[in-house]
């Protein structure tokens, strides 16, 4: 069995910042999860996971999120544009769920929608991702999830998969209706979060698992984070699942894509970490 595994889920700018806050708070208390043997990242969690496994300490990640406060104080223009799903895309998400009983069926419908949508160009997406991800070499511990836009099947990219790191993380973040699908290894891929907000079942066979789930509720028929954590426990793993508490949920708000909320969400995650130091520490160091 692999020993210590960290699962970082989807959640947009706000959810990624909350994860960074939790990681920094735990590290400050002596529970540094950056030494995980395996890190499984989905969407925003793929960005955080790539930076973490590349050697960026949780405290440094938190500092970068906190720097957003200065831009927020200068007003909405300085904070950057707020990304939102268009009404048409939102309707497409709802239609994708109708009559579909499996995550793969929903993902195929969303894949068709994404392939036909008019969004920013692929080059613009990669440029945006490059600004978020100053890492180019695959960290050995990292696994990045994405969903095949044609088949709806989940893929997990890693250092031995032959995939480009930047494209893999961009694919994991390619939310239908917002970003276009990303070409990788001869196929088109969309956001790994359309199948599951955590894809924590990829940690099957791992002994100690910590899951950070900014969005614990699944999209459509996809498995909830709580259900996946329960399955891992039933198979013999020690699992700690952390979801936003009430204070963090207020900061996350209704639009997790709102980049202006990053600093507040990072602070909320750091504050929440104190409540999890003992249980996560016992699991991680036990």
TrEMBL record:
GO biological process, one term: lipid catabolic process
Pfam family, one: Patatin
Sorted UniProt keywords: Hydrolase, Lipid degradation, Lipid metabolism
Compositionally skewed regions (Basic and acidic residues) per UniProt: 56-70
Alphabetized GO MF terms: hydrolase activity
UniProt region (Disordered), positions on chain: 56-83
Annotated motif GXSXG, positions: 41-45
Every PNPLA domain range: 7-204
Residues annotated as the enzyme's active site: 43, 191
Biased composition (Low complexity): 71-83
The protein, known as: NTE family protein
Organism of derivation: Streptomyces pini
